Amino acid sequence: MATSSKKRVRKTFEEGCVYIRSNYNNTIVTLTDPTGSVLGWSSPGAHGFKGARQSTPYAAQVSAESIAEKALSFGMKSVGVFFKGMGPGRDQAVRGLMNGGIDITSITDRTRVPHGGCRARRTRKV
């Protein structure tokens, strides 16, 4: 009996989502399809940035440009961008996506905002 090998069919997507999680130490860029399944991710550490250089805007741009290449390989033309966090690489990551040849349809900020905070300590009784 001859074994037949299955040919892997690569899915293509016209549009997708990019999630940028940016904190003060790192910036992680994730590419998903419209349903939310992860297609690829990138971070400055994967491109040789170590230590304090990971938190720079340039490192975030390099990560976003590599995600743009992955998106183009899946056939994506436009993406929606979702931010989370207040790191220095937020805006530069969007520029990196644009430099990579991806159209950005929407930009949404999903950073958590405290409202009222924790319960205050009790007043000290002397």
Describe the structure in your own words.
- This protein has 126 residues and is an alpha/beta fold.
- It has one domain: Ribosomal protein S11/S14 (Nucleotidyltransferase, domain 5), CATH 3.30.420.80.
- It is built from 2 helices and 5 strands.
- It has a 5-stranded mixed beta sheet, with helices on one face.
- β1 and β2 form a beta hairpin.
- α1 (57-73) packs parallel to α2.
- The chain is elongated, with a radius of gyration of 19 Å.
Task: Name a few traits of the molecule.
alpha/beta, Nucleotidyltransferase, domain 5, 2 helices, elongated
In brief:
By secondary structure, the protein is of the alpha/beta class. It has helices at residues 57-73, 90-99, and strands at residues 15-22, 27-32, 38-42, 78-84, 103-109.
Uncertain runs are: none
Principal-axis shape equals elongated
Oligomer: single chain
Across the major sheet, the strand order is 3-2-1-4-5
Please give the domain count.
1
CATH fold description = Nucleotidyltransferase, domain 5
Name of the CATH architecture: 2-Layer Sandwich
Biggest sheet statistics: 5 strands, mixed
CATH class: Alpha Beta
The helical percent reads 10-25%
Radius of gyration: 19 Å
Q: CATH homologous superfamily?
A: Ribosomal protein S11/S14
Number of strands: 5
Number of helices: 2
Q: What percentage of amino acids are in beta strands?
A: 25-35%
Given helix and strand content, the structural type is alpha/beta
Q: Which H/E pattern describes the elements?
A: EEEHEHE
Distance between the termini: 89 Å
Mean pLDDT, all residues: 91
